[in-house]
Known about the structure:
Chain A is α+β, with helices and mostly antiparallel strands. The first copy, chain A, has three domains: 12-91 and 122-285, BirA Bifunctional Protein, domain 2 (2-Layer Sandwich), CATH 3.30.930; 295-411, Rossmann fold; 418-488, C-terminal domain of ProRS (Translation Initiation Factor IF3), CATH 3.30.110.30. Chain A has helices spanning 12-22, 39-58, 72-75, 79-85, 125-135, 180-200, 247-251, 276-285, 311-330, 345-354, 365-370, 391-416, 424-432, 446-456; strands at 26-28, 35-37, 62-63, 69-71, 88-99, 106-108, 113-120, 144-153, 167-177, 207-210, 222-229, 235-245, 255-257, 263-265, 267-274, 302-306, 335-337, 359-363, 372-377, 383-387, 418-421, 437-441, 459-464, 469-473, 480-488. In chain A, helix 2 crosses helix 6 and helix 9 packs across helix 12 (391-416).
Amino acid sequence: MNKEHATREENYSQWYNDIVIKADLAENSAVRGCMVIKPYGYAIWEKMQASLDKMFKDTGHVNAYFPLFIPKSFLSKEAAHIEGFAKECAVITHYRLKNDPNGKGVIVDPDAKLEEELIVRPTSETIIWSTYKGWIQSYRDLPLLINQWANVVRWEMRTRLFLRTAEFLWQEGHTAHATSQEAIEETERMLEVYADFAENFMAIPVIKGVKTANERFAGAIDTYCIEALMQDGKALQAGTSHFLGQNFAKAFDVKFTSKEGKLDHVWATSWGVSTRLIGALIMTHSDDKGLVLPPKLAPFQVVIVPIYRSDDEYQRVCDAGRAIKKDLERFGVSVKLDDRDTQKPGFKFAEHEFRGVPVRIAIGPRDLENGTVEVARRDTLEKEVLQITDLPTKIVHLLEHIQENLYTRALDFRTEKTHTADSWEEFTALLDGPGGFIHAHWDGTSETENKIKEMTKATIRCIPLGNKLEDGKCILTGNPSIQRVIFARSY
Amino acid sequence: MNKEHATREENYSQWYNDIVIKADLAENSAVRGCMVIKPYGYAIWEKMQASLDKMFKDTGHVNAYFPLFIPKSFLSKEAAHIEGFAKECAVITHYRLKNDPNGKGVIVDPDAKLEEELIVRPTSETIIWSTYKGWIQSYRDLPLLINQWANVVRWEMRTRLFLRTAEFLWQEGHTAHATSQEAIEETERMLEVYADFAENFMAIPVIKGVKTANERFAGAIDTYCIEALMQDGKALQAGTSHFLGQNFAKAFDVKFTSKEGKLDHVWATSWGVSTRLIGALIMTHSDDKGLVLPPKLAPFQVVIVPIYRSDDEYQRVCDAGRAIKKDLERFGVSVKLDDRDTQKPGFKFAEHEFRGVPVRIAIGPRDLENGTVEVARRDTLEKEVLQITDLPTKIVHLLEHIQENLYTRALDFRTEKTHTADSWEEFTALLDGPGGFIHAHWDGTSETENKIKEMTKATIRCIPLGNKLEDGKCILTGNPSIQRVIFARSY
């Protein structure tokens, strides 16, 4: 592992990139904008998937799979949707290559042109609602609570690993309901699931809110979101849940007969989180020594590093390490014994620290004599000597503490970086100073929001759920306002 | 559920299609050749994934994710590979749509043409080996044991749900090794994993063998396969494991320094199974009453159907059903209580039978008085009355029996449909009669193999591993042969 990497202070953006690359999470591929998710990064995604999938199933959802391709004409059926999504996408025009008659590799076969172009899905509302038309006739078919784990493609010009890539992995829930109220309840339920996941698994405090019209999903009536704050004071949208009203049901003519025999369009929601969450995870907890992972999402929670000089010592400490591993695994702790004999302990310490393994156990010949080991926690870098016999219960508690500590630390950071601005001067001074979330009055118009964005690059992250109403004056226009909203610069 | 469906006798192909559609496994989508995998079908795939993924990890593999797109030029780098795969594929030529100036929806933006076309991956050897070049320098980096769960696209002209679709889901393992021997061992190890999975989870007996040159994966030195026999006497290739030699390492210039300091190209394997397995599952076990699922892959193993007249009875039998469900779940049995009050028991019986639920428990008010339930098994359609108190252990055993019985039944069927042919007349009579696997002598040339295929549509499914050598004469040419190989018509 290359030890040279940037600090947050020196260059935040480089620091982020160094962690992604040098902790072996992901890298750019030969295909512009597409990333390779490396095994260590993918293992984090698998942990996220497993937890989320269980939460989806516990709330009554089932998984299914819909086509990767969307006929071009489908995208045009929902007017707002096409405006938001059709602009930058991968377009399939042909279905065959042939040998170049000039003998230089292969060329596109001009005879194999598709009658209608296909789009690689940027999101699946259109293909799914065209399918739901065949599945929904009666109120008995509702609600339909379906999720899909899939890859999607949005042709991004400026990409950053995990945060913004042309192809990314995600889940997208698409539900159908008999009433508007049921659909809104579903939208809110899934927002709660996302907030629960962010806070209790990722250890990231989030603000739950509703987007303004400007920031709404293309085709939604309302977009709910969870917003997190990164260490550079910029916000990151970590998940969205959309109430789609009857927009897609109308676009694809999906009607149902109610219990009372009335024919009506179906009500819809959609909601998703993506591999972007890994970016949020990195930027929330990591430090200048590298990645820091919350125990609940770490590919392995504990690494055991044997310390030895002779072959005989190697055998003995590795045996002890294997015994400890077994003991810990019995308590549900995931453990890796790093018994590579090609690397020295110092190298291993640095590597696992940089990769954010929550707990490191070092064990050498003297430890064996004393029945002890050295335990180091990644979040605070503190070390202590523990009795081997006490390990399982102590490690279980330590992992819980680390999980809690990461959350508390992130919450404290956010609290410190959350301010109130009552004037334009205050507002811009905060933005250019500490950054963070700024509670400020806004006159409620898209024009003002756009102007603020143009002038400062700050956007309204959300109107928090259960927001306190209070009279005030818009920080830009001075026009009357009924509540403060949350501004920030964002990813 | 529509009760009308074809029998195997009447129309085997229609029978298969009816099961896929009417058991709600999958359906054709609005996109030519692409299927929608419905929740019940996808739940089977999830079970397959979970079992396989565990087997891969138990044999030392980790998961990762590589780009969906492959630059056109990559495909040409391995000569045999491009011949096999480039012909029919989805080609991305543009990255933007724009509003039609004539106001009719959207059109492809001619200004957004890619410099080099991208191919939607038909398989990932090329993009993965171009990546491995950056990951492998030394013997310390080997072996690299990586698997990917992904969607792939092959532009098929004639598609059939699960068996042959343009887009399908699969896993593809791609490993890198320091020696030829290690790579061959890996190829064989993964074939064993597939055979184990087919036999012990899918309850499908398979023949392990090696493909002839004609049937080899494009770019492989050797293709190992597992071959299963369907109820219409046709073979189905259920999984392949390829020894790729140094072909891809040479194409992408991937070299490593050995322990001895020698520079050499890396040795490779790749191996995959796909959603096609669901097709194999259906065609192996199902009958004229619909789908039959082995307990280890059934989305739920037991369905409880309450029988009642009054609301009061409904409450009481549902309560009893819930108690039984809990008891069974404690023993690791997955159970669905079908407490819908919108459908009658007869409808539910037919539906669950058609959907292949391994065990049905019916419970009515009289049963409650007696402390009994009626238990029906899907494979033999036998019913028996059991004491509620005995249920957990009896059901656990019953599920094991069903799993075994399905395997034995399929094995008996295969044995019955396996023949030896010593002359061309025998060979063609068998093919046009019972079909099945035919052990016959072949002179070992591709020409003969091709001729036989042209004349009969039969192909050599494989040369079984550990095949007995025996002198004989080729059934077509009469030329000398050293062993019998397995012929069949196939999917």
